[in-house]
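Hey,
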Amino acid sequence: MTLLCADTVVCDADRTIDDGAVVVAGDRIEAVGDRGDLADAYPDHERVDCDVLVPGLVGAHIHSVQSLGRGIADDEELLDWLFDHVLPMEASMGPDEMRAAADLGYLELIESGTTTAIDHLSVAHADEAFDAAADGGVRALMGKVLMDKDSPDGLMEDTDAALAETEDLIQQYDGIRNDRIRYAITPRFAVSCTEACLRGCRSLADEYGVRIHTHASENRGEIETVEDETGMRNVHWLDEVGLTGEDVVLAHCVWTDETEREVLAETGTHVTHCPSSNMKLASGVAPIRDYLDRGINVALGNDGPPCNNTLDAFTEMRQASLLGKVEELDPTAIPARTVFEMATRNGAKAAGFETVGKLREGWTADVVGLTTDNARSTPIHDPYSHLAFAAHGDDVMFTMVDGEVLYRDGEHVRLDDAGIRERAREFADAY
């Protein structure tokens, strides 16, 4: 057992404990409470002290395999960014490059306090990213990308072959590592997938009981293309082909109208808000407060390093709150507690992990410890304000997933960080 002690334990968006502690036994949280009481009750166990304890953060939409392209396509419009830069990079990547990129992505997540990721991979060599996630120790919902229409050479697939490979990967990877790694069927987006492909994704999801994760309504050019081809708004088209529901996670959803928002709410579809990416690509501002008011589960994601440059989830909390306030011209919009819940429990709900996202007895031991030993963290009048507006990923003292410490005091336990970064730099020179 391990006794994790902190000046402040942030259990969830509603509960904090001053001078508290969390007891971890195996992969579960055994107790949460007063530091003194738990120290007396568990006197002979390893003790780890930090300033703030929080649930592991959830990156509910990332692209780990785009890590080698950090900074290659700044100041570009979305579809130009995608088709002129990012997709050609993905098409050129062999298995070694894909493994190096995924390793680098998970390295960054672990050292900045993200314990769970919903990861949108690429068309080829998805097995390399699955193996990297499994070896790195992160919790992930992830899948091979499907693209069978209007796609660049090297990524364009035959529909049946894409679905068959997806089925093979589900059978191979869904539920591995004690159910820490789960499969998500991952069509790129409606622009690059035929109707047969999208309907096939729904059929596989129903057959195997796995989730679906795709992009939707990220910018106006995308929705215009979908409407020209189908006669429907994007979310209505996805609903028509079966890509809405409680097992579906849609990234972005920036440009939706009233009727589409009704569909999202009625079907229980999850939405991942990626504010930094949407700002950098000038895609627009997602109507997050409206989604939340409708009861739609909204999570937070960083998107990929080429359109964000960082996978730091603390940065994304700050951006989400500030952008929401500006969009609404209301300083009370998207408060700190709300973005903290989006970055923890809401993300876990989207990913389908039932006992992740809170520090609670019997729940999974995904825990992050932070230091406040810096000027930026002084003083702390409200822990939620600190986490949303002042904390950074480099405040992380340790990251624990399933009760296993993956990162402590600047050192990775499982991963060779220097080797991963060097290998990534060597491959990235090609881009």
